[in-house]
Amino acid sequence: MLKSVTAGGNIRIHKNYFHISGAAVLIEGDSKDWFESGAVNRLEISENIFDNCAYIPAWGKAPIQVSPSAKKLEAGSYYHKFMSITHNIFRCFDRRLLWIKNIEQVIFTDNRVELTKAYKPVSQNRFVTEHVGELTLQDTESGI
After folding, report:
1. Under the phi-then-psi rule, with left for phi > 0, alpha for psi from -120 to 50, and beta for the rest, what region is 117?
2. Exposed, middle or buried, 139 (CB in 10 Å: 0-12/13-18/19+)?
3. d(Cα 45, Cα 40) in Å, to the nearest integer?
4. CA-to-CA separations, 39 to 16, 69, 93, 127, 136, in angstroms, rounded
5. Of the candidates 81, 11, 13, which has an alpha carbon nearest to the alpha carbon of residue 47?
6. Phi and psi for 112 in degrees, rounded to 5?
């Protein structure tokens, strides 16, 4: 199980299966209190299966969550740098895919989304973004 990812270098999450009650991939970063984890430079998430993740909302806002704890958000300045999410399968009981905050560039392309009835829907927001510099969202093959 992969829970939290923070590293200054390049990270690749490739060909994994996730079925977890919270966020499958959680990118944090503490720039407010403890300063115990740093920013992510480049993260590639590809060819994974996200199977009904984040069914307990207190443990995850979406299957992929980026939520650094910055004190303030400044125009043109981002805590995390780059994330690409490509060629994944999202089996979801509601519309949530990404909850992302304070990142310079995000690419979400060529993913497949399948609707399930595994759990009661939590939210209808597919993408929740706050302070994202460049966001590329390509239509996904979807039942939701």
Report:
1. alpha
2. exposed
3. 13
4. 23, 11, 31, 21, 21
5. 13
6. -110, 135
Sorted by sequence, the CB contacts under 8 Å of residue 40 that are 6+ apart come out as 5, 6, 7, 8, 11, 27, 29, 80, 81, 82, 83
| CA–CA distance, 36 with 79 (Å, rounded to integer) | 14
**How is residue 136 written in tokens?**
């590329």
> How many Cβ atoms from other residues are within 10 Å of residue 27's Cβ?
26
- Contact yes or no for 28/36 (Cβ under 8 A): no
pLDDT in tens, the chain (144 residues): 555 566 666 889 999 999 999 999 988 876 556 555 678 899 999 999 999 999 998 999 999 999 887 767 888 899 899 999 999 999 999 999 999 999 999 999 999 999 999 999 998 899 999 999 999 998 666 665
Chain Cα centroid distance, residue 110: 15
b/e sequence 65-79, b meaning 16+ C-beta within 10 Å: bbbbebeeeeeeebb
Kindly state the helix (H) or strand (E) to which residue 135 belongs, with its residue range: strand 127-137
